[in-house]
Specification:
Layout (H helix, E strand, L loop, with lengths): L1 H26 L6 H22 L3 H13 L1 H26 L3 H21 L7 H21 L4 H19 L4 H26 L9 H25 L4 H7 L2 H13 L6 H31 L1
Helix pairs in contact: 1-9, 1-11, 2-4, 2-8, 2-9, 3-4, 3-8, 4-7, 4-8, 5-7, 5-11, 5-12, 6-12
C-alpha cells in the first residue's frame, strides 16, 4: 500500500513537473503562430494517442465509448464541449507563453482550483464553507489588484482558469479512461485542425514541412508532450488521495512563475507580488480547509 502511494506521488508529481516546464518547449517554436501550433498539437496528439491505444490494446474500450456516444446524445455533447474547452485552454496558454505572459498563465492555474469549487457550487449545488468564502474573497482581491495594476482585465489568467475548470466539469460528467478520453477529444477537433493547415498551405504560409526539420520535429513532438503528462497523471491519481493531488497541483504554476521571472525575465512588479500574495493566501486557506475536511471524515470512519 505504501509503495503504491509512493508510485502514485511520483507519477502525479512527474505530470505536474512536465506541465510546469512546457513553456520552455513552446518558446522553441515561438516563430510559429499560436493557431498553427494548436492545430499541430491537436493532430499529432490524436495520431500519437491512436498509436498508443494500439500498443496498450485499448481499441476495444475506444470502440465501446464510441458506441455509447451514438446512443447517448448528452454524452456526445459533453465530449464535444470538452474538446472545445481543452482546445481553447491550449490556445490561450500557447499564445500567452509566446507573447511574454507566462506569469499570467501561472496565476490562471493558481486560481483554477477555486474556480472548480465555484462551478461545483453553481452547477452541482454543492455547499460553500466559511473557509471557501474567505478563499474566494482573498482571490477576488488578488484579481482586482492585478486588474487595476495592468489597467485591463487579466483575461489570460481568467480564461485559463475558467476553461480548465469547465473542462474538468465536463470530464466529471463523462468519466472514462484518460487515454480513450484524450483520443476522442482530439478526434473531434482534428478535422478542423487539418482544414486549417490545408488553408495555410494554400496561402504559402504553412510552417510545418517547410524546410526547418527542427520546427517539424518540435511541432510533431507537441503531440507526445500533450499525452505523456496526462497519462502519468491518470495513472498516478488513482493511487493517491484527492487532498494529496490538491497539494501537488501547485507544482506546475509555481514552476511556471519561476520560469517567467527568472528565465524569461518578465517584469514582476510590487503590485503583481501583492496580487499573488492574496491568491497564495486564498490557496493556503482553501487547502487547509480541504485537509481538515478529510481528517474529519477519517475520524468519523
Amino acid at each position: 500500500m505504501q509503495d503504491e502511494r509512493k508510485a502514485g506521488m511520483i507519477y502525479t508529481a512527474g505530470s505536474y513537473v512536465i506541465w510546469g516546464l512546457i513553456p520552455i518547449y513552446w518558446k522553441l517554436v515561438s516563430g510559429v503562430s499560436a493557431y498553427e501550433i494548436l492545430a499541430n498539437r491537436v493532430i499529432w496528439s490524436f495520431v500519437f494517442m491512436i498509436l498508443l491505444l494500439v500498443l496498450m490494446r485499448k481499441l476495444a474500450p475506444l470502440g465501446q465509448v464510441l458506441k455509447e456516444i451514438t446512443t447517448h446524445p448528452k454524452k456526445a455533447a459533453a465530449l464535444a464541449t470538452a474538446s472545445v474547452l481543452v482546445s481553447i485552454n491550449w490556445f490561450v496558454f500557447i499564445w500567452a507563453v509566446n507573447n511574454n505572459h507566462i506569469i499570467e498563465t501561472s496565476m490562471g492555474y493558481y486560481i483554477n482550483p477555486l474556480m472548480s469549487v465555484l462551478l461545483g457550487i453553481l452547477v452541482l449545488k454543492e455547499a460553500l464553507s466559511k473557509a471557501q468564502i474567505l478563499s474566494f474573497i482573498l482571490a477576488g482581491c488578488g484579481v482586482l489588484i492585478m486588474t487595476f495594476s495592468y489597467g485591463s482585465f487579466p483575461w489570460v489568467s481568467i480564461s485559463l482558469a475558467v476553461s480548465f475548470a469547465l473542462y474538468g466539469l465536463a470530464k466529471k460528467m463523462i468519466r472514462m479512461d484518460a487515454a480513450v478520453g484524450l483520443t476522442i477529444e482530439t478526434a473531434v477537433v482534428t478535422p478542423i485542425a487539418v482544414l486549417y493547415l490545408i488553408f495555410l498551405s494554400s496561402n504559402g504560409t504553412l510552417q510545418l514541412f517547410s524546410g526547418s526539420v527542427q520546427t517539424d520535429l518540435l511541432l510533431i513532438g507537441g503531440g507526445v508532450l500533450t499525452a505523456v503528462p496526462l497519462l502519468l497523471f491518470g495513472h498516478g491519481a488513482q493511487k493517491i488521495p484527492l487532498y494529496l493531488i490538491g497539494f501537488l497541483q501547485y507544482i506546475a504554476p509555481t514552476m511556471t512563475l519561476l520560469l517567467g521571472v527568472f528565465l524569461y525575465h518578465e517584469p514582476f512588479t510590487p503590485s503583481q507580488l501583492l496580487s499573488f500574495s492574496f491568491i497564495w493566501s486564498a490557496l493556503v486557506v482553501f487547502t487547509f480547509a480541504q485537509l481538515k475536511t478529510v481528517q474529519k471524515k477519517k475520524a468519523v470512519i
